[in-house]
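User: Here's a structure from my thesis project, written as structure tokens. My advisor, Dr. K., wants to see whether a designed sequence matches the one we expressed. Can you design one independently, without my sequence as a hint?
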């Protein structure tokens, strides 16, 4: 009888474990927090996709209407011309903002912000490349004080080098190529040289740095996928897909900005070396090409928000929180805590009951 007692105790322990496993499985089917979070994230993604589609369609419709009206205006159709004249008369803006703000302030607002965006993006890409190439030393290189000093240095460089150049411009309603013309100063070669520096250093090189950094990231993800091909986690697959997207977007960013820079270099070259030559056909070709490429690059800047909304999960969640005025992180944390407490309250009585049965036997 004493020899049968351990077998009975072992049998009861095994039965208790089986009951607990079955109970946990049934409980997870009924009230699984991971399933709730999964459905919550899925609903967030659907909501973000709907918001992105709405915003994209609205912007696309506005751009299409404006381009159609401009095209009809160029063809000089009578009703459209009357409509544009009516819009001009009804508009609150009666004068050109370049004439009110001066070309210096106008260009500082327009080009200064885009140049800062390019340099900051290049700085972040350099930090990411350092993390990939020097994984053991990046903590001593990429620090918060270094990042703050870099941000301040970029702002100072833009303020001291780029912005004073645009105060050499003056408003001219009959400008041939650009929005403003240069003043009649004796230092025209210096002005053209600063424009060339802006084209090469502040726009072309940062976009090239972003493209090279994305290539480094993609190569790192491909090597990781090659090493862990069979045991690749879900996060690793997601990071590989994001690296491919980042590479394609950086390549699009570089190629969309490059044509306008090439045309600007040709224009500055002609003005720098052939200032006395006045070829109207060449200037018209430059004007058409430059304006088309500027529209192409402006589309790139306008789609950054939508691209970030599609790729970044954290940005999408924060954007949905901003739109819906809700804090989803706190609500998901409360759901987790409530489910854990419910699970404990339901499992503790069963454990105590099984322990009592074992002791009695």
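Assistant: Designed independently from the structure alone:
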């Amino acid at each position: 009888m004493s020899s049968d007692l351990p077998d009975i105790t072992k049998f009861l322990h095994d039965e208790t474990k089986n009951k607990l496993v079955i109970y946990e499985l049934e409980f997870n089917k009924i009230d699984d927090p991971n399933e709730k979070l999964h459905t919550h994230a899925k609903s967030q993604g659907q909501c973000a996709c709907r918001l992105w589609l709405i915003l994209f369609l609205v912007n696309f419709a506005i751009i299409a209407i404006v381009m159609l009206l401009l095209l009809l205006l160029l063809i000089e159709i009578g009703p459209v011309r009357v409509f544009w004249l009516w819009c001009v008369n009804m508009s609150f803006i009666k004068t050109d903002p370049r004439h009110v703000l001066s070309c210096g302030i106008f260009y500082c607002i327009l080009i200064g912000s885009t140049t800062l965006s390019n340099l900051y993006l290049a700085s972040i890409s350099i930090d990411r490349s350092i993390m990939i190439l020097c994984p053991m030393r990046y903590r001593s290189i990429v620090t918060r004080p270094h990042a703050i000093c870099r941000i301040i240095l970029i702002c100072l460089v833009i303020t001291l080098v780029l912005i004073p150049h645009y105060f050499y411009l003056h408003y001219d309603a009959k400008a041939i190529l650009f929005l403003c013309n240069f003043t009649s100063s004796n230092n025209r070669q210096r002005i053209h040289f600063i424009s060339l520096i802006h084209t090469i250093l502040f726009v072309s090189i940062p976009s090239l740095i972003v493209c090279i950094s994305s290539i480094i990231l993609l190569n790192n993800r491909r090597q990781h996928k090659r090493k862990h091909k069979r045991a690749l986690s879900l996060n690793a697959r997601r990071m590989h897909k994001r690296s491919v997207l980042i590479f394609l977007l950086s390549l699009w960013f570089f190629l969309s900005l490059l044509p306008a820079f090439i045309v600007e270099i040709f224009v500055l070259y002609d003005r720098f070396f052939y200032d006395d030559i006045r070829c109207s056909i060449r200037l018209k070709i430059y004007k058409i090409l430059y304006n088309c490429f500027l529209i192409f690059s402006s589309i790139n800047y306008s789609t950054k928000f939508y691209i970030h909304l599609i790729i970044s999960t954290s940005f999408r969640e924060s954007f949905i929180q901003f739109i819906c005025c809700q804090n989803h992180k706190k609500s998901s944390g409360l759901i987790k805590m409530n489910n854990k407490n419910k699970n404990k309250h339901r499992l503790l009585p069963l454990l105590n009951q099984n322990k009592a049965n074992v002791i009695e036997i």
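When you compare it with your expressed construct, this may help: The two ends are 12 Å apart (CA to CA).
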